[in-house]
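queue> pop job 88
queue> type: inverse folding (structure -> sequence)
queue> payload:
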């Protein structure tokens, strides 16, 4: 057998690639388009919780994108207390394979990929589901993915007011300072949930709660707003779905199963079902369903994270790495 080689891109390689906002959005949108055209396979994520005392778990995401000729498996750890050790709460590896032979194509540090693709899904969802004139963002959470949520939302909407809040004062202050420097505009740090989200055009809930707790009140949501909750533990009231004109998800098969997620109880109690679900984002991207149709529509977009987004963004990074001569070739067999 001839030698089998695969590419390894470490965190430094990913950073040096410096994909710009447009490239990140384009790659993730291509994954959504392939999903909408039936050119993908996506399996619901599964979880591994080694020990409840560790206050964390692993997510394993799996998928296949035919136009890219790649299958992929990502393993991402989600450990809430990592900040106490000076580590990111979410660290990940993405494995890409030739779907025809099963041979490895690449292994990538997917920590930044996870952050970028999550922000891209949030922003692409907003492109189709928020009002075109949306200017005020209320963002809960300062986790790694939060930065890319705000950065890419601002790329699309050129926000005039950005409010942020998180559980720890030091984290929200550092988060706001980074955003203000990178975006070149002021960022408002709030001391509570209500002042962050009340009346905002776009509300993103990316909190990190140890257990479900309804901290985001339905009464604070303005008519015509887009609400994007994606925390691991639910932070919303059961009544939140009652005020929505449309509820959109990234993948219904994934959202309706598993023990985690912002709308877990809504699914379990039947408030969110195939009957009450408007559709998946990919259906809107390919034009099978309209997104926002009226300015006064109040819409909820719940995304749990797509393996397809990881694969598509990983493929874009591999392509640029080859152009720049970055990464290592490692022998597999």
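queue> result:
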């Amino acid at each position: 057998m001839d030698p089998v080689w695969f590419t390894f891109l470490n965190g430094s390689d990913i950073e040096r690639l410096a994909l710009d906002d447009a490239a990140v959005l384009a790659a993730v949108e291509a994954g959504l388009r392939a999903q909408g055209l039936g050119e993908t396979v996506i399996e619901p994520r599964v979880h591994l919780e080694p020990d409840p005392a560790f206050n964390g778990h692993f997510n394993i995401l799996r998928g296949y994108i035919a136009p890219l000729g790649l299958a992929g498996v990502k393993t991402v750890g989600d450990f809430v207390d990592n900040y106490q050790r000076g580590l990111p709460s979410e660290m990940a590896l993405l494995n890409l394979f030739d779907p025809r032979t099963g041979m490895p194509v690449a292994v990538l540090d997917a920590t930044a990929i996870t952050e970028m693709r999550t922000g891209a899904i949030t922003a692409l969802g907003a492109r189709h589901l928020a009002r075109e004139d949306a200017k005020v963002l209320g963002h809960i959470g300062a986790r790694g993915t939060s930065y890319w949520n705000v950065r890419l939302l601002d790329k699309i909407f050129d926000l005039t007011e950005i409010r942020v809040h998180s559980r720890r004062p030091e984290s929200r202050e550092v988060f706001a300072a980074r955003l203000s420097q990178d975006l070149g505009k002021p960022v408002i740090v709030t001391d509570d949930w209500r002042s962050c989200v009340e009346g905002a055009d776009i509300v993103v809930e990316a909190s990190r709660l140890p257990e479900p707790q309804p901290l985001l009140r339905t009464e604070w949501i303005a008519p015509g707003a887009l609400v994007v909750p994606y925390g691991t533990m639910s932070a919303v009231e059961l009544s939140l779905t009652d005020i929505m004109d449309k509820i959109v998800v990234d993948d219904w098969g994934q959202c309706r199963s598993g023990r985690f997620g912002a709308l877990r109880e809504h699914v379990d109690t039947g408030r969110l079902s195939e009957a009450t679900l408007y559709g998946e984002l990919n259906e809107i991207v390919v034009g099978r369903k309209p997104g926002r149709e009226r300015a006064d529509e109040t819409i909820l977009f719940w995304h749990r994270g797509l393996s397809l987004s990881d694969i598509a963004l990983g493929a874009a990074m591999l392509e640029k790495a080859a152009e720049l001569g970055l990464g290592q070739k490692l022998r597999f067999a």
